[in-house]
Amino acid sequence: KEGVKMNPLIRPIVKIIDKELHKPKKGDGKTVYLPPLLLIIGIVCTAVLLIPAFVVFFIMKSIGGGGAFLAMALLSSSMIIGYFNQRIYYDESGFVSKTFFGNKREFLYSDIEYISGRFEKDTKIIAKGKKIHLDEIAIGKIEFIAFAEKQYQKTNCGKSIPKKNKTSKFDFVFKGNVRNPGAPIFVYAFITVLWLVVIAFVLFYNQ
Asked: Which of 24, 41, 150, 171 is the most buried (most CB within 10 A)?
């Protein structure tokens, strides 16, 4: 089977980031959150993109060029929002899903209808008709699912939470050769964009 071929200059970076994001990290037994590495990457990339945006817009007086860099900086900042956007706090009485924008939803374990996906990949818990997304790289995810299963059984006569498997929309590209089809595409695309930013900045600067 053939997989997706990557630029040999980018492949090592993708592997390092992907390995770090998937490095097993034990949770604290009461919270689910994304790896701090996402926050670091988001802050660094946003800062790196804001510098050429400032130079091109204010010094080189190019509204279009400055706007393009600013748009990419805002795109990078989405990782910062994403880091704070997935928070789950739980204890024996229930769990709370909280987002970056302050949306707060409280659930009992008996509210869980089913779990979609596999534990080692992206997972969704459906409770009271609402979707609670658990990213595969989320810290504390495994502990939370195991705890939720235990609490669910207590209120459902020992029955397990119903489970439904799903297939990644990127599987048609990787054909099962990649553990997490979405992450390599995201990392590869993001690094490619950064390369384009550097090239574009050099071209603008030399005009």
From this structure: 41
